[in-house]
Structure prediction request, 285 residues.
Amino acid sequence: CQTNGASYILMDAPVAAGGIDLFVQRARQFAACGLPVPHIHAADSTQGFLLLDDFGDRWLWQDLRENAAATLPQALTLLGQWQQATAALQADIPPYEPSRLHTEVALTREWFLPWLDIAVDTARWQESENWLVERAGQGRALCVHRDYHCRNLMRRADGSIGILDFQDALWGSPAYDLVSLTRDCYIRYPQADVRRWEANFRARYLPQESAEDWAQTCDAVSLQRHLKVLGLFVRLAERDGKRGYLADLPLVLAYACDEAAALPHTVWMADELRRAIPRLQEKLT
Prediction:
């Protein structure tokens, strides 16, 4: 809606669906940190309505498709600012508990592979899942957006980038949001560029991390995330009727195959996931 030349978004989040309280809390916290999140002009927690700044309709996805070399470093700089600006919020942001990571990484085994009629060696999968969760929990932790990708970043009218969908932030791996962007489920970049962006981010914001450990952390955290997404997209389609996500499965599966092959503890998993490629192609045709 528009008034006095300004544009606003009316957000509807019924109490039965979770309401607005957490979003309002996080928006105010992140705004106080100087981060570019929508300003809340009015809030009705009883009915679940919010009046927010309108960040426009240009996803960063469009800029990344046109000129990733110029656009992605901008998003990485903003991510670095996010990680630094939120450092004082640890007492207010819940930890990314291992139990949650376990639940997420198991979604491929519980939803994606059964959907393709692929038999699962549960014990073997669980062993590798346990390693991925343990690896994701190593090292320092900080505020994780959890969905920092091209569809939750907006190019605002003034040319700056705005951040959306931040209400589920947790305290977890500094690699999580990074790989959510560099290995985005909706767009893929040349591997050499991905490695360079991730290495440069470490050098600039996390110099205490060794280069070798950081590269493996990025692979492990990204594999955990992509295994989650494979199962999540199938569950959204089969349980919730949201079938539009299925079209993105081939890209996510390709990521997971490459990442599993790059990690000694999950090389065998890469072979299992490659078996899914032709079955997925058949399922989607």
User: Anything to note?
Assistant: The longest helix spans residues 211-240. The radius of gyration is 19 Å. Residues 51 and 123 are 49 Å apart (CA to CA).
